[in-house]
Description:
There is one protein chain. By secondary structure, the chain is mainly β. The strands form six sheets. It has a four-stranded antiparallel sheet, with no helix packed on it. A hairpin with a 2-residue loop joins strand 1 and strand 2. The termini are far apart.
Amino acid sequence: xxxxxxxxxxxxxxxxxxxxxIITTASAATTGGDYTSSxxxxxxxxxxxxxxxxxxxxxxxxxPVDPGTPGASGNxxxxxxxxxxxxxxxxxxxxxxxxxxxxxVKDQSNAVKVVPNYAQVTDQSGELSGWTLSLTQASDxxxxxxxxxxxxxxxxxxxxxxxxxxxxxxNGITAGKPSDVVASGTLTPxxxxxxxxxxxxxxxxxxxxxFGDVDAYDASSVDTANTTDHTKVATKSAISLAVPAGLIxxxxxxxxxxxxxxxxxxxxxxxxxxxAVTPAP
Length: 281
């Protein structure tokens, strides 16, 4: 009996001594391997024009009340450029300065909002090559009927000037803001005037060039309940029209086209030309 107990005790002791060795061997066997995969995305150039944004809050899409004629679609686009109205003025024998109305847009609730005049451009090329935005007044303001030989047909020498030029990034973009922003200038008929130029690695995304802020304009010169009324006279504006004395003026509407051009040419390389415009004779 004593021998049996002794053998059992010896056997138990052997199991206890050898158990850690068994556990250690199992732990070493579970040390695992590694595996690597990847996540992938390929981007290509986008196509515009894109929707207009609010120039006072360029995270919000809007609908222009009086849109112009868009150009061809592509990955470098002018999405919008304001139409200018100087009201209905009285004929004068003296030099006069007239002020442009502010622009108007409709927000997402379809409410009409007064905003500064502005242009919106978008670069979705993905090339970061730079670009130049220019504005060209096609000709002297002229009558909508008649010919250039008619007395009073054109307001020769009248000049459109602007001040307060600033640039805002659309949809929250701040990186790569174009460094060359023209604050003020005067348009010459048939000649492209630079507004903004983006150097290489600048200008990707959507950017809004504002002609001053909304406080620079006479908000009472527009009627948000009757947006087609362009007859009122503004008392101030970031955009003005100076008409010299000594012109023959007729009681008629006068107009000229404004060409907004975005070219894939950095400002340092821009030669002042734009293929979108045929210079006035």
